[in-house]
Design brief:
9 helices, 21% helix, 405 residues, 7-stranded mixed beta sheet, 28 strands
Length: 405
C-alpha cells in the first residue's frame, strides 16, 4: 500500500477530520463517486460518454473484397477487355474471366476472380481495351481486413470519440451501451454578487457562475442548472434537498465565516462530510460530502481562482468517478527558473507551456483570474523547504486528455 493509499484508507475511517493533502483529497474524491448505471443510447447521444461494455465486431469489415482505388478490376495479365462498370452501390458483378476487366470506383465490391485493381492513372485505354502494370493483389481491400467477427475493438471504459462513433456505424450498430454523462447543478451563493455590469464598493461581479457550465461540459458532464442563492442556510438546505443532479457544486459557502452555511446545511440533511479542507494554495477551504442516495456535493471557495482550483481538484475527480473513468495521471514538466514551494501545502501555480518547459505567468492570487486566463495549466508544486525545478501539470481545460498519459 502506498503512502497516499494509506492516507485515503485512514480518511475513510475517520471521515476527514482534518485538511487533507492535495493528492489524497483528489483520490478520495474520485473514490467517493459511484459510476452511473449503463444506458443504451443512439450513436449521436453516446459521443463523449464512456463505453459500459466492450465494442466487439459482429461481422467482417469490410464484408467483401472492395476496390481501394478508382480504376479497373482486372484478372490475369493484360491487356484486358472492359466488360462493364461498377459503382459504389452496384450489386455484386459476375465473376471475371482471364483477360477481362471492369471499370470500378473506390469502395465498390470487386467481382470474383479479380487479381488486382489497376488505377486509372496507371492505365492506357482504347475503346474497350485497357492495359498497364497491375501487380497481383494491389489496391484491393480484403474482406475482414479491418476486423473479423468477435474481435475486440475498444475495451469497456474507452471514451466514445467521434471516430469511435464512425467505427460503430461501420459495424452496423445504431446504439451503444455507455455510462451516461453525469448531471451537475451549480449553486452560487453570496449576497454581494451582481450578475451584470461592473463591481462597486460592497458589490462583486460573479466570475464563478460564467465559468462553470463550460468547465463542466469540458470535464465530460452535463450542466444541469446554475442557480444563484442568497447567503441563507434555509435557502441552501432547500436547494440541496431538491437537487436533481449527481454532482452539486456550491460556491461561496465552503469556508468557516458567518455567511458560510454549507457544512451546517449538509449536517442538517444527514450528508456524510468526506473532505473538510485541502492543504493547497489557493483553494484550501474546499469540501466534499456524499448523500445516502449517492449524490455528491463539492464545496468551492468563493474567490474565483480558488474555486477554479477546487473544481479541477475535486469536481473533475468526482466526474471521472461518476463516468467510470480512471483518475487522470498528470504529466511532469520542468519549471523554467524554478518556483517556490510552500512548506506545508501544495501550490497551484498558473503556467504556460514553452519549448524548455513551463513558465509561471503570475497573477495567481486566489481572487484573480488574469493568470489562469493566460495559462495552459496549473503547476502542481508539492510542499517542500525550497523551490521546485519540475512539477506535475493540471490542465486548465479538463477536456484535455493527452497530458494524462
Amino acid at each position: 500500500m502506498t503512502q497516499v493509499e494509506g492516507e485515503v484508507a485512514a480518511v475513510v475511517r475517520r471521515h476527514a477530520a482534518a485538511a487533507l493533502s492535495w493528492d489524497t483529497a483528489r483520490e478520495l474524491a474520485h473514490a467517493t463517486a459511484t459510476p452511473l448505471l449503463p444506458r443504451s443510447l443512439p450513436l449521436a447521444d453516446a459521443v463523449g460518454c464512456v463505453l459500459a461494455t466492450p465494442l466487439v465486431s459482429p461481422a467482417l469489415v469490410p464484408p467483401v473484397d472492395r476496390a481501394a482505388m478508382d480504376g479497373y478490376a482486372v484478372r490475369g495479365p493484360g491487356p484486358w477487355t472492359v466488360v462493364g462498370t461498377l459503382l459504389a452501390g452496384s450489386a455484386l458483378a459476375a465473376p471475371l474471366a482471364d483477360g477481362q476487366a471492369y471499370s470500378i470506383v473506390t469502395g465498390a465490391a470487386v467481382p470474383a476472380g479479380t487479381t488486382a485493381v489497376l488505377p486509372y492513372e496507371h492505365a492506357a485505354r482504347s475503346d474497350d481495351k485497357v492495359e498497364g502494370q497491375a501487380d497481383a493483389g494491389r489496391h484491393i481491400r480484403r474482406a475482414g481486413e479491418e476486423c473479423t467477427p468477435g474481435e475486440l475493438l475498444l475495451p469497456a471504459g474507452a471514451l466514445v470519440t467521434p471516430q469511435a462513433l464512425g467505427l460503430a456505424a461501420t459495424l452496423g450498430l445504431d446504439r451503444l451501451s455507455v455510462i451516461p454523462k453525469p448531471r451537475v447543478l451549480a449553486l452560487i451563493t453570496g449576497d454581494e454578487l451582481v450578475h451584470r455590469g461592473t463591481s462597486t464598493p460592497g458589490r462583486v461581479r460573479d466570475a464563478i457562475g460564467p465559468m462553470l457550465p463550460t468547465l463542466i461540459t469540458r470535464a465530460g458532464a452535463k450542466p444541469h442548472q446554475v442557480l444563484h442563492l442568497k447567503d441563507s442556510r434555509d435557502a441552501l438546505v432547500t436547494a440541496l434537498a431538491g437537487a436533481e443532479a449527481e454532482l452539486i457544486l456550491v460556491s461561496g459557502s465552503s469556508a468557516s465565516g458567518p455567511a458560510d452555511h454549507l457544512r451546517g446545511a449538509l449536517a442538517s440533511l444527514g450528508a456524510d462530510l468526506v473532505i473538510d479542507g485541502v492543504a493547497c494554495r489557493p483553494g484550501h477551504p474546499q469540501a466534499l460530502a456524499r448523500f445516502g442516495d449517492g449524490r455528491v456535493v463539492v464545496g468551492l471557495p468563493g474567490n474565483p481562482l480558488a474555486a477554479l482550483t477546487a473544481f479541477l481538484t475535486l469536481g473533475v475527480a468526482v466526474i471521472r468517478g461518476l463516468r467510470g473513468e480512471q483518475l487522470d495521471r498528470l504529466a511532469v514538466a520542468a519549471v523554467v527558473g524554478g518556483v517556490d514551494c510552500h512548506p506545508t501545502s501544495t501550490r497551484l501555480v498558473p503556467v504556460r507551456l514553452g519549448p524548455q518547459g513551463v513558465v509561471p505567468v503570475g497573477h495567481g492570487g486566489s481572487a484573480m483570474l488574469r493568470g489562469a486566463a493566460a495559462a495552459d495549466a496549473f503547476a502542481v508544486v508539492d510542499p517542500g523547504p525550497a523551490e521546485a525545478i519540475a512539477a506535475r501539470l493540471l490542465p486548465m481545460d479538463p477536456g484535455i486528455r493527452p497530458w494524462g498519459v
